[in-house]
């Protein structure tokens, strides 16, 4: 068997020629991700654990959504408010110990009001105490691959034991978007005033939700701010059939957060082109067949593959069909025989899609096997004769 590599220089065709550039963000740390194609567009200090401020509330929400999903609670479940929850400073829903807020109220209080009291109420309601819930947050985060996260509380209140990387925030944000779409609409809501107690804190702090003129639309997810962390944003936006996530930390003002969030979204949507690079069933190569009723079989992608391409990199994209050949008959239609490997400069690891047989190939009859045997013997005889001549 012999490894074969076929390079397709023109597989992708021509792309729109726009000037692509690496985005020079003012954020101390950033991670930008195309959810649709699972492509990392920007990584700046993204795996460094940093104080996440209220952006860590996404982890609290993830555990809450898991409890809803498995039926431990419903949207109408109510929780008591402890003196500890009522005493929380910073952003709150203004809960008191006589309240019994429903889960739906608490979700809105966390997302829209950034309510620290709401987070403590959820933590105590689900785990008995906030420290116990913080331990569950850390354990669950690590199970989800968030290796640079640890939690000391449910709200993001400043604590040396409260740390998340921007990449980890991206992991939990992407999980909420893709795994809990039934709850995602809460992130685009702009106003919530529990029992008319907090008119001054009733507006969602996400500055991108108010943008109306762009051809993309922001619909989430969470802001954060402490003196130590600076101003941060976990943002998500859609344009056409693309969704992006962008996580920013360490900006020096609300205005800078708003400007940088909008600039990153514009860059992510404008400087990359989504291109169909492989179509299921389209023959891309042929593999020789050993002892088959036909001498070759067509190779086609098993599934469609779309990729984001930097707009100025169309002539640098490399596509290879990689397979071992000749392939021994019999062969079944759809049998995996190799892979198509696409390499895009400046983006993350190469993407692959399986190459499968286009059709069945039966084992050859008697004469096919005889000819193969003669060819093999002829090759051996030729080799022996050459060795004799050279000796």
UniProtKB/TrEMBL annotation:
Coiled coil: none annotated. One of its GO terms (molecular function) is carboxypeptidase activity. Pathway: Cell wall biogenesis; peptidoglycan biosynthesis. It catalyses: Preferential cleavage: (Ac)2-L-Lys-D-Ala-|-D-Ala. Also transpeptidation of peptidyl-alanyl moieties that are N-acyl substituents of D-alanine. It comes from Thioclava arctica. Residues 1-22 form the signal peptide. Residues 272-363 form the Peptidase S11 D-Ala-D-Ala carboxypeptidase A C-terminal domain. The keyword Nucleotidyltransferase does not apply. InterPro entries: Beta-lactam/transpept-like, Peptidase_S11, Peptidase_S11_C, Peptidase_S11_C_sf, Peptidase_S11_N. Its EC number is 3.4.16.4. This is serine-type D-Ala-D-Ala carboxypeptidase. Keywords: Carboxypeptidase, Cell shape, Cell wall biogenesis/degradation, Hydrolase, Peptidoglycan synthesis, Protease, Signal. The keyword ATP-binding does not apply. Gene3D superfamilies: D-Ala-D-Ala carboxypeptidase, C-terminal domain, DD-peptidase/beta-lactamase superfamily. Belongs to the peptidase S11 family.
């Amino acid at each position: 068997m012999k490894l074969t590599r076929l390079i397709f220089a023109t597989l992708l065709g021509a792309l729109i020629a726009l000037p692509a550039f690496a985005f020079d963000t003012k954020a101390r740390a950033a991670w930008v991700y195309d959810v649709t194609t699972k492509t990392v567009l920007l990584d700046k200090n993204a795996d460094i654990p940093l104080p996440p401020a209220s952006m860590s509330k996404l982890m609290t929400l993830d555990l809450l959504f898991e409890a809803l999903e498995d039926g431990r609670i419903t949207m109408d479940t109510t929780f008591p408010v402890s003196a500890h929850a009522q005493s929380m400073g910073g952003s709150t829903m203004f809960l008191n110990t006589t309240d019994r807020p429903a889960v739906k109220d608490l979700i809105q209080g966390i997302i829209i009001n950034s309510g620290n009291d709401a987070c403590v109420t959820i933590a105590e309601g689900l785990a008995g105490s906030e420290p116990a819930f913080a331990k569950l947050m850390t354990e669950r985060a690590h199970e989800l691959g968030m290796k640079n996260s640890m939690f000391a509380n449910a709200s993001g209140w400043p604590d040396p034991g409260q740390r998340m990387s921007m990449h980890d925030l991206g992991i939990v944000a992407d999980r909420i978007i893709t795994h809990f779409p039934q709850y995602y609409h809460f992130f685009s809501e702009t106003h919530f005033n529990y029992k008319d107690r907090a008119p001054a804190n009733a507006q969602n702090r996400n500055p991108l939700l108010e943008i109306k003129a762009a051809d993309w639309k922001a619909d989430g997810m969470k802001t954060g701010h402490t003196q130590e962390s600076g101003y941060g944003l976990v943002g998500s936006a859609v344009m056409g059939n693309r969704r992006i996530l962008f996580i920013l930390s360490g900006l020096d003002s609300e205005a800078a957060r708003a400007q940088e969030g909008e600039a990153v979204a514009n860059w992510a949507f404008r400087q990359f082109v989504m291109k169909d690079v492989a179509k299921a069933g389209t023959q891309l190569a042929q593999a020789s067949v050993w002892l088959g009723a036909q001498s070759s079989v067509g190779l086609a992608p098993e599934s469609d593959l779309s990729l984001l391409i930097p707009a100025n990199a169309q002539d640098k994209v490399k596509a290879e069909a990689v397979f071992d050949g000749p392939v021994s008959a019999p062969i079944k239609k759809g049998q995996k025989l190799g892979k198509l490997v696409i390499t895009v400069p400046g983006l993350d690891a190469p993407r692959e899609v399986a190459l499968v047989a286009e059709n069945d190939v039966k084992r050859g009859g008697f004469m096919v096997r005889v000819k193969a045997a003669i060819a093999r013997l002829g090759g051996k005889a030729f080799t022996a004769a050459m060795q004799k001549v050279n000796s």
